[in-house]
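Many introductory courses stop at the sequence. We go one step further.
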Amino acid sequence: MKQQRHWWRSPLTGIPQQSRSAIALVIGLLSLLIAPPALAFCGFYVSQANASLYNQASQVIIARNGDRTVLTMANDYQGDVRNFALVVPLPTLIRQDQVQVSNPEIITRLDQFSAPRLVEYFDENPCDLPVRGATRGGNTAQFDDADYATLAAGSHGVTVEAQFSVGEYDIVLLSAQESSGLETWLRQNNYNIPAGAAQVLTPYIRQNFKFFVARVNLTEFRANQRQRLRPLMMAYESPRFMLPIRLGMLNAQGPQDLLIYILTPTGQVELTNYRTVQIPSDFNVPDFVQDEFGRFYNALFQTSYEQANREVGFLEYAWDMSWCDPCAAEPLTATELQQAGAFWVNAQASGPTNPVFMTRLHVRYERDRFPEDLSFQTTGNTQNFQGRYIIQHPYRGSLDCPAAEGYYREVSDRQQLEAETLAHYTGWSEADVNAKMNWLLPPSAESDSLRP
């Protein structure tokens, strides 16, 4: 137990006390939610598909090393904070010193660093190239509130194991003997939880899970003039490497997006009870996608989600956090990684002594899908991966050389392939895509014959 206090307190001492957070009965967690390294490239990032893209998105950080887990939860809770209630099933009891509020900027940093992104290249003047057919632009193909009501311990088979306050939250840790008793207890103590919770709570009680229950201390919240709730961070030890999501489905008003940023000292993390699939990546798209990248990525994700029978976790990013080439955002410092929960990181050291591998998984779930909570395993796979899409701008200056005719035909073929590829991955009609294309046409009477 002494060791446990050390690993939680020491590395995370000094976490800034600023943030945001969850949604009524969020997620039970969430919405209650060997290959060579990729080649370097010289393009410029121009857009990202980060969490702001989704209307109902929950974000979670899981830092895991051995049996030790630090879990940070943040939801876009909208509404009167008096109605906020968070119920999280945990595989073990935790203490007050294992809970604290977190800095929302860390979640934003991880999101920005790992979000699928758009990169652009520019063709050189083909008349200036010494050899036709030489690559123009770079490699575009293979990357590969208030006080509590009186708490009656033992009523309805519910035991209050502990109660305390952290920041703007009042927290109770409960154990229960049966789910209907737990639901009744929560309602009698003025927790705003959705109907039907008992059925979802039953499997956790059978597995002897404990329940982390939080609501807002309005006095603290108002005294600090907070505008939004901050994320909650908790630490525990358990061999179970999992994330409970079934309670979150009770609040679902349609599909829910869950972004999970997983930090480990080894390699990629994958789901064990559902498939983990790489999001389609590394293909060229027409340049008009730059102005509607969010729409593009949502369509690509939805199409991939439907083709995978809606029961899959998509890998959007996997990378050794010690480097990036290029970086979509400034790399996280050792201190920031500690704030994200990576308790094994030494802020005074760098490089191999601070191994952190980040996996970003994106799950879109519905009430009739994902009958089980998410279970994970760490692998030894250190292959880097990112959702990355490429615009290769044609050269549009004046061309007066023998290579011009061949270049126009090459770009025409390339643009036609971009249009077909975009339609395939998004489900958009080829006619609509073609109408938006900025075709490169030669300045000749026959140019229309090259346009699809």
